[in-house]
Amino acid sequence: MVEEVRKIQLTGRSTFIVSLPKKWVISMGLRAGDQLVIAQEGPSLVITPKGLARPRASFGEAVLRISENDASGKIVRAIIAAYLNGYDPIRVVAAEGQIKPLHRNVIRDLARKKLVGVEILSDTHHEMTLKVLVGYAELPVHDAFRRLYLITSSLLENVLKALTTLDRELANNVVELDDEVDRMSFYIIRQLKVAVQDNKVMQEIGLSNPREILAYRVLVKFIERIADHSAKIAEVVRSLKAKPDESTLRGLLEMGSFAKTVLEASVKAFFKRDYRLAEEVVSKVKEAIAKEASLIKEVAHKAGDLSADVALIVESLKRISDYSSDIAEIVLNLSIEQMLQS
């Protein structure tokens, strides 16, 4: 593509104009009076003949037909897929007869526990209609991601407390709150999927370019995995018949404290786009590998009958640190300009 540099001209007192390249106008088959669509993408303007402009993403209504023999998981996955891809409303219709009570309860629980902003507008024997009542701009991606992180950080903090005191009730609470992480993850992914196809939505949810969309999509996955590992630790704590010995517990809590520290630092680096802080996180996690390996051997040796449970906890804590390092590497990619300018 041949680039041309053109000057902005002022006509009258407040109108700025730029002439269009003649070759492009001819190649597009345009004439004086034809209309152009001008869309902003970050710092750039994209000019498209009106007849070729892509309309704003509109997915419309999704109709899911289910039968009595369908597994509940199949129905749940179909509804979540429709939600993530921007469909609204989502109608669940019985292919024959009526929606059986088991399916109806599963759909109600899904709307209540897993899908942000979704309400059941109609509920008859033959069909149920789910409506998304939250607009794209009401909870921008930045704010939703911050909430996702705060919930996940809380899960990790609470599961370490549960491990310290063998508080099975607190561990159970961590497992239950993992649903809230899924809710926020689904909501953010829904926004990102629509934003990929609609620049206006991208701006409404607080993003400026497609690179940010990709970054958030990967970050959500990492945070969700960290929450999953916190829930796995909680499940182990719930099943423990006795606390680990003092030395073993001290080693686990040391790993847990490190995992929490690098998670907090990596997310802080993301919000601030801080290259140096992100580099510190990556370096700390790499330096900790040898130390963790030694600690794992020591803990496994002293754990006795609890060695299998302790191994599961150790693996999850290690994975949390690894995902925090992955988050920091995303920050490095987003903020490389800081390094190049220093």
Structure description:
By secondary structure, the protein is of the alpha+beta class. It folds into 3 domains: 9-52, Pemi-like Protein 1, Chain: D (Ribbon), CATH 2.10.260; 62-132, Ribosomal Protein S8, Chain: A, domain 1 (2-Layer Sandwich); 141-341, Phosphate transport system protein phou homolog 2, domain 2 (Methane Monooxygenase Hydroxylase, Chain G, domain 1, Up-down Bundle), CATH 1.20.58.220. Helices cover 62% and strands 12% of the residues. The protein is built from 11 helices and 8 strands. It has helices at residues 22-27, 72-84, 101-113, 141-165, 168-197, 199-204, 210-239, 246-272, 275-303, 307-334, 336-341; strands at residues 9-11, 15-17, 36-41, 44-49, 62-66, 90-94, 118-123, 127-132. α4 (141-165) packs parallel to α7 and α7 (210-239) runs antiparallel to α10 (307-334). It starts with 8 loop residues before the first strand and ends with a helix.
